Amino acid sequence: MSLLEVKNLTYSYGVGTPFEKKALDNVSVNINAGEFIGVIGHTGSGKSTLMQMLNGLLKPERGQVFLNGNDINAPKNNIRNIRFKVGLVFQYPEHQLFDDTVRKDISFGPRNMGLSEEEIDERVISAAEFVGLKRELLDKSPFELSGGEKRRAAIAGVISMEPDIIIFDEPTAGLDPNGRNYLLERINDYHKTKGKTVILVSHSMEDIAKYAQKVLVLNKGRIEMFDETKIVFSQVEKLDSMGLRVPQITYIMNKLKEYGYDVSGGVLTVEEAYKELNRLLCRKRGEKC
Amino acid sequence: MLSDITIGQFFPGNSIIHRLDPRIKLVLLLSFIVFIFITGNYFSLSFIFIFVLSVVIMSGVALKMYLKSLKAIVYIVLFTSVINLLYGRGEPIAQLGILKVTVSGINNAVFVFIRIVSLILISSVLTYTTSPTQLTDGMERLMSPLKVFKIQVHEIAMMMTIALRFIPTLLDETEKIMNAQKARGASMDSGNVIQRIKAFIPVLVPLLVSSFRRAYELATAMECRCYHGGDGRTRMKSLHLKKADYISSAVCVIAFCGVVALNIILPAAER
Questions:
Q1: pTM, whole model, 2 decimals?
Q2: What residues in B contact A83, CB-CB < 8 Å?
């Protein structure tokens, strides 16, 4: 049984006004435990809407969301308990910081879960450590932190609930390159060390290609593809037609292959490309690598 | 929940009401309010109510939207009507303990009900058919005689424009923050009053912070475009009265005369 099962979800915004717009149209998808899933799609393709349905923030117009086989919108389920299991980190999560110290802010989630003070404390510290927030920052006001630190503190606020599934909606938007890489590495680590399911929404194909095992492609409220990363990014034309692209390095390697060079197609990361090209150069020079 | 709020909402369209000059619309709204309240008998009341309804229909905005704006105040209307119903003067028709219903009570209740509903409808016509910029533009022009008294009309109008402009933005923002806190297990709609108020702190603090941030950003952006207040400022779209404005004003004036005439000719309702 899959961990999260989405069945025939449909949702529209502004029903009954002149601005009515269908955001999701009959979307079905299964997500298994422990997967790292990348979600890509044009602006307005329904990514954020879908993500907010996975933890019951939006109620589907039609269709269901099952977590471990339970319909999360069924009246018998307490929706709060679902939200502790499906963590959602919004875009610009630092805008949600509110408490007078970082420690208190991170503990907001665990406290709502009704954990004991010791456990809350433990979780705050481990979550802060996980996102790389220095211990001495914990007793500062969140509004004194730098932009990157604020972002990390806000993410720690969700991680501290230790959800089974954690959704990141464009977590690196507006960060500098170092901050981006660091954050993505932390997210990847979270997936690897804790074995939790991670869903990453991003506009950076490079990031998705590097970290995601499977990629979900949304276009105009429908799922266009849902497959392993390599397979999705091999369909260059189809992605192009949706206004999406494949990683730049993939374009280059595909072109090289087209020109008759002996490189394998579907290279997704710079590291892979480096290996391929190095192999090619070595052979040309007649050296062994 | 928050999407039910229709204050300051504008529905673009091309009806005759949409095309009227905002100044005319504002003046007519004010006179409508006055004449709705001077109605003295059922004839003038129904006359102006029907007139309001025809304006609503002419606006071309979905009737659903008007119902929505009425829904927001349905309790106030019912409450004041019931109070009026029970506190009439004169001989009671029906009595239950200290509660009595009289003819004047019934009259008062009906009058209050129709008056408030007409008031809401006609004000909604203005906000639904006039874009916020047009609206404040019109207000600025109407208030410009106040400049004589050193009142900074342009600044007031600009503040109103900005406030109106930011209502939807802040609603959006509130919803986002609420969702973010709900995702961390906050519950906004359970518990007693104090718990509920407390539950809103995690929403209000970030909202306040972001409003300040937005205000600073806006001020900087305005300064970057050399905004320096109202002195010597010209307009891209200056307002000119057209034929339609004169005709509609004339129609309204005639209707208002009708109200007064009906009031004088026919006997006043017992109040």
A1: 0.76
A2: 182-185
